[in-house]
Amino acid sequence: MMSLTLSVILVLIISQNFLSTLAPKALTTFCISISLIITYALSVFAVWNANMQLIAAHKSMFWNFFLIRNCLISAIVSAVILRYFYVQHQWKSNIQTEARSRIQTLQARIRPHFLFNSMNTIASLTVSDPHKAEKAVLDLADLFRASLAQQDKIPLNDELNFIRGYINIESLRLGERLNVTFNIPQGLSLTTPVPALIIQPLVENAIYHGIEPFTAGGTIIIDISSDDRGLIVRITNPIPHERDPKRSGNKMAQDNIRQRLQLAYGGQAQMDIYESGADYTTSFNIPFDAK
Q1: Are 206 and 237 in contact (CB under 8 A)?
Q2: Are 215 and 173 within 8 A, CB to CB?
Q3: Which terminus of the chain has a smaller tally of CB atoms within 10 A, N or C?
Q4: pLDDT digits (tens, 9 = 90+) for 79-94
Q5: pTM over 0.90
Q6: Of the candidates 268, 262, 250, 241, which has an alpha carbon nearest to the alpha carbon of residue 202?
Q7: Could you read off the pLDDT of 115-138 as tens digits, one per residue?
Q8: Distance between CA 125 and CA 65 in Å, rounded?
Q9: Is 182 helix (H, G, I), strand (E, B) or coil?
Q10: Contact at 8 Å (CB) between 280 and 243?
Q11: What's the CA gap between 257 and 251, in Å, rounded?
């Protein structure tokens, strides 16, 4: 039985590239057929190496019983194993589909106040500066296109472009009150895949909680670096001396990002919050993932 099992496994491993192209029914038929063929071949080999005098006395009955029994056992065991792997595959597929749906739902969340503010700003610019209004509409369209796209991951450079477009829209409303500094090492790969709109909500959070409450505004620092494990993202904004209780939702955006990182990377991604003096920093890592 051990030789039979190892033989079947070896053949399936060798044929895995071919098996990956088959439909489920064809794959099941192929696997059971391979199992039966190998069972038959090993049974014949076993008979030829057995006690021939014992077999000769009951040749026909022994031969038929031996082959039928082995092939029947092989077919049943193969069917049970294939059924197990099918159930496992369906379970994993359902989990992945549910996770992807949750990611897309979380990704599509954009604060209503941002949309209202943007539309009011664009409306006022259509008369005073049509060129800026047109640019703001294009940036807003790109942002919403990204939030509604069915992309789980995009290159880091695309994410940064979305952030810059978002900052451009907010700058039309906040003017010189909003200052943003990007700290990105020159050698950092901008093609690294990251979850779509994973950084933008935290920048939005930083503006809402760290810039708008200040009459003089402030500076948001977007720091992206890397180590052996992946990217490290830090968003830092000033903290108002007195926090407005009406400006809630800080944890909601952070929980959104935390859930998406958990769904995308499991325990490999971690998110941390720091408050030091007058600064508030949200930090998380994105493991390197080529897919």
Answers
A1: yes
A2: no
A3: C
A4: 766 666 666 666 565 5
A5: no
A6: 250
A7: 777 788 888 888 788 888 888 888
A8: 89
A9: strand
A10: no
A11: 10
